Amino acid sequence: MVDLKTQYLRIREEIDREVIEVIASAKYINGPKVREFQKALEAYLDVNHVIPCANGTDALQIALMALDLHGGDEVIVPSFTYVATAEVIALLGLKPIMTDVDPDTFNITSEIIEKAITPKTKAIVPVHLFGQCADMESIMMVAKNYGLPVIEDTAQALSADYFFYNGKAKKAGTIGTIGCTSFFPSKNLGCYGDGGAMITNDDELATKLRLISNHGQSKKYFHSVIGVNSRLDAIQAAVLKVKLRYLDEYSQARQRIAAFYDEAFQNLDGLKIPVRQPKSTHIFHQYTLLVKNGRRNELKAYLAERGIPSNIYYPLPLYKQEAFKKYFSGNELPFSERLCQSVLSLPIHTEMSKETLEYIVEGVITFFSNSKPQVLFTN
Question: What is the pTM of this model?
Answer without folding.
Answer: 0.95
